[in-house]
TrEMBL record:
PANTHER family: HTH-TYPE TRANSCRIPTIONAL REGULATOR BETI, HTH-TYPE TRANSCRIPTIONAL REGULATOR RUTR. Residues 33-52 bind DNA. InterPro entries: BetI_C, DNA-bd_HTH_TetR-type_CS, Homeodomain-like_sf, HTH-type_TetR-like_transc_reg, HTH_TetR, Tet_transcr_reg_TetR-rel_C_sf. This is TetR family transcriptional regulator. Keywords: DNA-binding, Repressor, Transcription, Transcription regulation. GO terms for molecular function: DNA-binding transcription factor activity; transcription cis-regulatory region binding.
Length: 201
C-alpha cells in the first residue's frame, strides 16, 4: 500500500476543520453534530475519526487555531523596534482581524470559543493564555512609547494596556454581532480620541 504523504494528511485535516468551521458558524458548537461535519466535509466517518476522536477534539483544534490567529495579528503589528503612532499600530491589528473575519469567520468563532471558556477549564486556560499574551505585548508597546515621551508616564502601562485590549477584543465582538463595522472607522475614531486627549504630561 502506498504511503500517504504528510502534505495529504495535513490537507485532509484542514478540509475537516474548514467544514467544521462552516457548520459551527452556521449552527453553533452545540447544535452541530459529527454527522453534520461528515456531510459538510463529504467524508466517511473513518476519514474523519482518523484525525479527530470526537466533536470536542475538533472544537479544541479550532479554538487553538482561532486564538493563535488573534495572537498572530498582534505579533505582526507589534514587531518593530521603533513602533509607529499608536493608532497606526492598532489600525494594523484591526485590519488583520478584519481580513481573518472575511476569510475564516474569525470573529464569529472567537465569540463562540470565549463562550465555551465559561464551561470548559481547558478552553478557559486557552483563552487566558491568549489574553495574557496580548496584554504583555500591549504593555511592552506602551512602555516603549513612554520611554520616548509619546505617552504619559503618570498612568501605569498595564492599566492603559487593559483599555486597549478591551477595545481590540471588543472590535471582534462587534464584528461578530453587528453590521457595518470596519477597521478604518475604528482607527479614525481612535485617532480623534487621542488628538482630543492632547500631548502627554
Amino acid at each position: 500500500m502506498a504511503r500517504v504523504s504528510q502534505d495529504h494528511l495535513d490537507a485532509r485535516r484542514q478540509q475537516i476543520l474548514a467544514a467544521a468551521r462552516r457548520c459551527f458558524v452556521r449552527n453553533g458548537f452545540h447544535a452541530t453534530s459529527m454527522q453534520d461535519v461528515l456531510s459538510e466535509a463529504e467524508l466517511s466517518a473513518g476519514g474523519v475519526y482518523r484525525y479527530f476522536r470526537s466533536k470536542d477534539d475538533i472544537i479544541a483544534a479550532i479554538a487553538d487555531d482561532t486564538l493563535a490567529e488573534v495572537q498572530n495579528a498582534f505579533d505582526a503589528a507589534f514587531d518593530a523596534e521603533a513602533p509607529p503612532p499608536l493608532e497606526e499600530v492598532l489600525g494594523r491589528v484591526f485590519a488583520s482581524l478584519e481580513r481573518l473575519e472575511a476569510t475564516q469567520d474569525l470573529a464569529k468563532l472567537a465569540v463562540q470559543v470565549w463562550g465555551e471558556a465559561q464551561r470548559s477549564p481547558s478552553f478557559s486556560a486557552r483563552a487566558r493564555d491568549t489574553f495574557s499574551s496580548v496584554q504583555r505585548m500591549l504593555v511592552g508597546l506602551i512602555a516603549a512609547y513612554q520611554a520616548r515621551g509619546l505617552v504619559t508616564r503618570d498612568i501605569p502601562a498595564d492599566h492603559m494596556a487593559r483599555v486597549l485590549s478591551s477595545l481590540l477584543f471588543g472590535f471582534l465582538v462587534q464584528h461578530a454581532l453587528l453590521d457595518g463595522i470596519d477597521a478604518a472607522s475604528l482607527r479614525s475614531g481612535l485617532r480623534a480620541f487621542m488628538l482630543r486627549a492632547g500631548a502627554p504630561r
